[in-house]
Write a structure and sequence with these properties.
By secondary structure, the chain is of the alpha+beta class. The protein folds into 3 domains: about 1-265, Spore Coat Polysaccharide Biosynthesis Protein SpsA, Chain A, CATH 3.90.550; about 285-345, no CATH class; about 355-460, Jelly Rolls (Sandwich). Helix content is about 25%, strand content about 35%. It has helices at about 35-40, 55-65, 85-95, 115-130, 180-190, 205-215, 215-220, 230-235, 245-250, 270-280, 335-345; strands spanning about 1-5, 50-55, 75, 105-110, 110-115, 135-140, 150-155, 160, 165-175, 190-200, 255-260, 265, 285-290, 300, 305-310, 315-320, 325-330, 355-360, 360-370, 370-380, 385-390, 395-400, 405-410, 410-415, 420-425, 430-435, 440-445, 455-460. It has a 6-stranded antiparallel β-sheet with strand order 18-19-20-27-22-25, with no helix packed on it. A 5-stranded mixed barrel has the order 6-10-7-9-11. The mean pLDDT is about 95.
Length: about 475
């Protein structure tokens, strides 16, 4: 099987932890990022591919490097166009590589699954069904009348079965997100299951479905050249449509495998709060909550922080260095509306953090003042910054960990912990990590402008202009 991750998302539902430039699947909400967990989980079945957008390619590259997966298996969409175009692009690539007879499994990037034994067995049954020409979905047994998920209705017939009471049933139909009363009816009837966006198919069979049900979209995707040189032009004209609406709701040869995976999409801070109470998998939460006459609250911070609560209840508090979010429990789905307000005010906190992850490492802003700016910069072993210069600022670097080789106007300087270097305005410079551990240095900028766009690159290992 070829496991494939669809890694979209705009970073709104778990704001202020997730942002547009650093969406949920990359956040280390748990002991490691959700994308890393997903790729590890599905690597049991084959070397994973990922379909994502260009804005987060460098973040995806880093996860792939950590797992020693070829980055050539990252397929880049020029822009998000929903799940049907993403799957069509994947099919087009698979056919170019003569993989029409392969089985593909599609998985979201940012879901949590605790019962991996059930998950693995369900996938085994799904593969067997897909080999017989079926399109297969995993249906999640509902625990409450949810209105935020679509549902899949099944018949009582059994198409195939495996161990752990895993059975594949013919699919009767897909249902849109219901209202509360309808969701309660679904729960009581017992043949409706949450649609979690995990599905399986043979490449050639799904191509046939696109040709029949989304012929114009498929024709457009087919026109993408082998080197993807015209992918931006083609993608800009594609209809934005989900695979459920465009394909799954229209085909008859499909089955659903109901299962209890210990699943959560962590789609809101309410979900995260519940996870903290019910799951053995701990959150990467460094908040110390101290309460006086308070109850049923949840505080989260990725850095050490005392959160003092007096006389309040049913609150969710999320603290980041540049933003604080306080919400009533049960109301955190409205965080998306809050982010939209921040965007309307053109505030950068809607889409970026005070830190950034780059192909060579990462940095965090320690202090940003009108007269100077300070950063904490980490360069991964074997990596180096671009050879660059600035017109508006000078920089002073102090090495606090590791060894680095600094180039100043083509002159080489090797620096160790405790040593420093000053870089004047207009001086070409770069630093390379020459050691086996992360190179960490503090950068202090002085000048008149400290924006990231004051960079003129002369050489770059990562193809940036």
């Amino acid at each position: 099987m070829i496991p494939v991750v669809l890694s979209g998302g705009v970073g709104t539902r778990l704001w202020p932890l997730s942002r547009a430039n650093f969406p949920k699947q990359f956040c280390e909400l748990l002991d490691e990022s959700l994308l890393l967990k997903t790729l590890k989980r599905i690597s049991e079945f084959g070397s994973p591919w990922t379909v994502t957008v260009g804005e987060v390619k460098h973040l995806t590259d880093r996860v792939y490097h950590d797992l020693n997966i070829p980055t050539e298996q990252i397929l880049i969409e020029p822009m998000g166009r929903n799940t049907a175009p993403a799957v069509a692009l994947l099919l087009h690539k698979m056919r170019q590589e003569s993989k029409e007879n392969e089985i593909v499994g599609v998985f979201p990037a940012d879901h949590l699954i605790l019962k991996t034994d059930v998950f693995n067995e369900a996938i085994q049954v799904a593969q067997a069904c897909a080999e017989k020409g079926q399109v297969v979905t995993l249906g999640l047994k509902p625990h409450y009348p949810a209105t935020g998920f679509g549902y899949i209705e099944v018949t009582n017939d059994v198409f195939a079965e495996g161990k752990l009471d895993i059975k594949a049933h013919p699919t009767k139909g897909f249902r849109e997100k219901p209202n509360k009363a309808t969701a309660q009816e679904f729960l009581e009837q017992g043949r409706f299951y949450w649609n979690a966006g995990m599905f399986f198919f043979k490449v050639s069979k799904m191509i046939e479905h696109f040709q029949e049900h989304l012929p114009e979209l498929w024709k457009q995707v087919e026109s993408i050249k082998a080197d993807f040189s015209n992918v931006g032009e083609v993608y800009g004209e594609l209809e934005s449509i989900s695979i459920d609406h465009g394909i799954m709701e229209k085909i008859s040869d499909q089955v659903c495998i109901p299962c209890d995976l210990g699943w959560s999409d962590l789609g809101s801070w309410d979900d995260v709060s519940e996870l903290s109470e019910t799951s053995p998998m701990g959150l990467a939460n460094k908040a110390t909550e101290l309460s006086i006459d308070s109850s049923n609250n949840f505080s989260f911070s990725p850095s050490k922080k005392i959160v003092g609560l007096v006389g309040v209840e049913d609150l969710i508090i999320v603290d980041m260095p540049d933003a604080l979010m306080v919400a009533k429990k049960g109301q955190t789905q409205k965080v998306k509306q809050l982010v939209e307000k921040i965007r309307e005010l053109e505030m950068k906190e809607a889409h970026e953090h005070i830190f950034d992850v780059r192909p060579w490492g990462k940095y965090a802003v320690l202090y940003d003042h009108g007269a100077f700016k300070a950063k904490y910069i980490t360069v991964d072993p074997g990596h180096q910054l671009s050879y660059q210069r600035h017109k508006e600022r000078a920089e002073h670097w102090v090495i606090v960990q590791g060894q680095g080789r600094v180039t100043l106007d083509d002159q080489i300087h090797d620096l160790d912990k405790g040593q420093s270097v000053t870089i004047g305005k207009g001086v070409k410079h770069r630093i390379k990590n020459t050691g086996d551990e992360p190179l960490i240095f503090v950068e202090v900028q002085t000048g008149t402008y400290f924006g990231e766009d004051d960079i003129e690159r002369f050489e770059d290992d990562y193809g940036r202009g």
